[in-house]
Amino acid sequence: MKSLYEHRFNSVAAVETEFAQAQYIASRQIATSVYLAFNLQKPILVEGPAGVGKTELAKTMAEVLEVPLIRMQCYEGLDESKALYEWKYGKQLLYTQLLKDKLGELMEGAKGLAQSIERLHSHDDLFFSEHFLEPRPLYKALHEEAGCVLLIDEIDKSDQEFEAFLLEVLSDFQVSVPELGTIKATVRPFVFLTSNNTREMSDALKRRCLHLYIPFPDAKLERRILETRVPGLSKSLRNELVAFIQNVRTLELKKQPSVSETIDWAKVLLLLNAEHLNVDMVRDTLNTFLKFEEDIAAADERLVNFVGKAREEGALLHARNP
Amino acid sequence: MQETLEDFFKALRGSDLDVTLTDSIEAGRAIEIVGLADREVLKHALGATLAKSMDERLIFDACFDRFFSFDAFKERPAGGGDGVNTTPFAMEGSGSGAGSGGSGGQRLVDMLMRQDQAGLAKAMKEAARQVGMTDIWFFTQKGLYIQKIQKQMGSEQLDRDLAQLAAQPGQSAQVAALKLARRRLFEEVKDFVEKQLAMYGTAPTKRLHDEYLQAQKLSNIEQRDFQRMHDIVRKIAKRLSVIHSKKKKQEDRGVLDFRKTLRRNVAFDGVMFETYWKTKVIDRPKVIAICDVSGSVRAYAKFLLLFLYSLSELLSKIRSFAFTNTLVDVTATFDGMPVQQAVDKVMKDVGGSGTDYGQMFMDLQAQLMKEIDKKTTVLILGDARNNNGDPQTEVMKLLHQRAKRVIWLNPEPRVFWGLGDSEMKRYLPYCHLAKECNTVKHLERTMDDLLRVSTATA
Ligand SMILES: Nc1ncnc2c1ncn2[C@@H]1O[C@H](COP(=O)(O)OP(=O)(O)OP(=O)(O)O)[C@@H](O)[C@H]1O
Ligand SMILES: [Mg+2]
After folding, report:
1. Does residue A286 share a domain with residue A240?
2. Low-confidence winner among A105-119, A302-316, B23-37, B62-76 (lowest mean pLDDT)
3. Looking at the domain assignment, is residue B381 inside a domain?
4. Residue B264 lies inside a defined structural domain of this protein
5. Over the stretch B355-400, which tens digit does the pLDDT of each residue have?
6. Which positions in chain B touch A206 (Cβ < 8 Å)?
7. Backbone angles phi, psi at B397, to 5 degrees
8. How many structural domains compose chain B?
9. Do B41 and A32 touch (CB under 8 A)?
């Protein structure tokens, strides 16, 4: 099997092209970070608002490298063992039941509790072997033969101790497990970590990673994303829609519409088969990209103005590039 | 290249961004991987390597742009070789190949006559290195370095050449042009030194640091210095309000109104029985302040707002507005919140992209014009960059007629006014006072002006 590092990106531009083929439109900034991280074999710590394509970036990387994507969602209380593996207690229990007789034989002649336990212990490793082990994401990631893309999502939600453990894993991709000894990665996974900045990451972790901030896309990038993600949409409507969304993002909102909302909205408008935005149509579909009543009200207030602006922008783009 | 990179690290450290040995090695590797051909890629690659958070990235980007711009001389008409300056490392390579440095290679007078901007920029950079610019410590050394660099570039020879030229008949136009060019050169070197200072200057004591901040262009000050900056502005504000209230006390006591007293006391045979004192009523200024917080002034917006906030603490009759496109009343925010919070809130609520001065003026026309009268001072803070939209100059004209005074503080240096999408030249005729304002010193002076103006003429 081909290891993931046998893949070659010839340049930053090549990353852009290959990602575009996999339907992901990477900005220059994203492409540079990926190119660099791949060549330095360093993890990328990605920050940015919800829905700007952080998860999708990792997925696409896996697709391009033709390796699996393994995702580990962090949460409060996630610890080392849960991230690595769990013992299949049920299976262990079942086996002890099934093997009752055998165990009886084994215990035969043992005098007293201490001696029985002694005897049992000598067979521990039978029950605490890979047969009874439930692999969790990290364990899987280290065992992928051709390597994988490991996405550690929302690292800021985990505890500090876990972060310290992760740091160890990320430095040499090996962990020691009491019952199993040392596990070492066959091929180093390519790692993305995402953070929503609810807490500050430790300096040590940050130093291990390249840092990437993904903002909302500018109009040009967002048009290209729509072009690949909702190809059926007419060019005129696409231009107007993006101009509209970009204007909405200048408002003070509880939740700004992200790329995912732009895509959702585009899909809805596609069904309406329109060539241009109009006020009624937008008003009726505001709730596809705005999730809060207050936000919808705020957008509604500027609706006529924004639709006007969007159509102007559309006309301008058309004039420039019919 | 290694040398340039080292200098860049120094600059980053000067901006309070920690660059460890490991970081510097990583940065070197990053450059090996991405190469130098594409400036943007280089910036992203170094940024991803050296900045560890969003805040640091902002610092990094600003520092990178400053360090690798070398766009001095760029805005002058008739420019030689474009693009020479875009990739600093490459430029350096070709520079050392070209030979003996600015001062030795070409005569300064020739470069100035030919308006060889690229050559001048290169000569200045080389001179700066030769005089050890990266060792600059704090702003008190500024003058020294300006001198040193000019000298290194050959200013003494230039003066001799000029004197010689002036002695010849019929050369007065040439002499005048050359003198002008020499002044510009001085401005460029000064600006360059200031920028360098911002990059390398880490002052050893707090007092020096404060002074340093005061002399800095605001955009060069990093986020972290914000609190300190605020303290300084507050101090200024306090001092000014002390001056202000002192004045008031003196005026309260007033002067004897001799005539009135005489007239009143005729009945007492001129014995001054009842005295009349002139008491001047202090006209508390009525100010409407409007602050641009859009992307193009991003680096300054916080500081303009900070200024505005201090002002609103100082003046009772002030209404404050902020805008990116539509005009937003922020008076209540300023009155109801501590400074940092208020400024952050305004930035968050009002800041954005898509500046529209036209829209702002239309809003002003609709909402405020009727309140503006001969007692109102209108203060506008912004760069007048309108994205080529309709500038609505008529509103400014009307404003100029109605208000007592229209004051415009523009963070951009005067030479940039009217260039590109700046509408400043069109607004200028309708300002009673328009000033470049991008350092605390500027602010201080302006604040003084403003108070003096508003109290003196009532
Ligand atoms: N640059 C892009 N090119 C193509 N599609 C994109 C791009 N950015 C985002 N998308 C689309 O936007 C949607 C949202 O992306 P994704 O789920 O990756 O966001 P996220 O940043 O991980 O959000 P969250 O913080 O909520 O996890 C996806 O469906 C993806 O297809
Ligand atoms: Mg996600």
Report:
1. yes
2. B62-76
3. yes
4. no
5. 899 999 999 999 999 888 888 888 899 989 888 889 999 999 999 9
6. 52-53
7. -60, -45
8. 3
9. yes
Choice among A106-115, A246-255, B252-261, B331-340 with the minimum mean pLDDT: B252-261
Does the pLDDT at position A157 exceed 60? yes
Q: How far is CA A18 from CA A13, A21, B52, in A?
A: 9, 5, 27
Domain co-membership, A107 together with A241: no
Looking at residue B78, its pLDDT comes to 33
Nearest to A320 by CA among A239, A199, A263: A239
Written as one letter, the residue type at B295 is: G
**What is residue B98's predicted lDDT score, i.e. its pLDDT?**
33
Question: Is B140 a member of any domain?
Answer: yes
| Whole-angstrom distance, CA of residue A226 vs CA of residue A257 | 14
State how beta strands A44-47 and B433-436 pair.
Answer: unpaired
| pLDDT at residue number B77 | 33
Confidence bin at B204 (pLDDT 50/70/90): very low
Ligand 1 pocket, residues with Cβ under 6 angstroms: A 23-25, 50-56, 225, 229, 259-260, 263
Integer CA distances (angstroms), B120 to A35, A252, B147, B189, in order: 37, 47, 16, 10
In the reported structure, the alpha carbon of residue A297 is separated from the centroid of ligand 1 by a whole-number distance in angstroms of 26
Q: Which of A36, A203, A207 sits opposite B34 (nearest CB)?
A: A36
Beta carbons of B44 and A33 less than 8 Å apart? yes
Interface pTM (ipTM) of the complex? 0.81
Q: How high is the pLDDT of residue B7?
A: 78
Check CB contact under 8 Å for A12 and B352: no
pLDDT band at B281 (very low <50, low <70, confident <90, very high): very low
**Ligand 1, atom 18: closest residue by C-alpha:** A53
| B431 interfaces chain A, CB cutoff of 8 Å | no
- Report pLDDT for B329: 92
> How many structural domains comprise chain A?
3
Q: CA distances (Å), B106 to each of A76, B90, B102, B364, in order?
A: 67, 21, 6, 55
Tell the burial category of A24 from Cβ atoms under 10 Å away from its Cβ (0-12, 13-18, 19+): buried
Domain residues for the domain of B295 are 284-457
Higher pLDDT, B2 or B241: B2
Q: Which of B170, B200, B230 is the last residue of a domain?
A: B200
Please name the residue of chain B whose CA is at the shortest distance from the CA of residue A254. Answer: B349
What mean pLDDT comes out for the span A186-196? 92
Interface of A with B (CB under 8 A): 12, 28-29, 32-33, 35-37, 39-40, 44, 47, 197, 200, 203, 206-207, 210-213, 247, 249-250, 252
Residues A28 and A40 in one domain: yes
Structural domain range at position A235:
219-320
- How close is the Cα of A166 to the center of ligand 2, in Å? 20
Residues B120 and B65 in one domain: no
Q: How confident is the model at residue A90 (pLDDT cuts 50, 70, 90)?
A: low
* Ligand nearest to the Cα of A46, by number: 1
Element (H, E) at B174: helix B172-200
Pairwise CA distance, residues B294 & B290, whole Å: 12
Residue bearing tokens 């702003």? B139
Residue B254 within a domain = no
The CATH number for A49's domain is 3.40.50.300
Q: Please answer yes or no on whether A211 and B51 come within 8 Å at the CB atom.
A: yes
Asked if B102 and B126 touch (Cβ cutoff 8 Å), the reply is yes
Cβ of B53 within 8 Å of Cβ of A40? The answer is: no
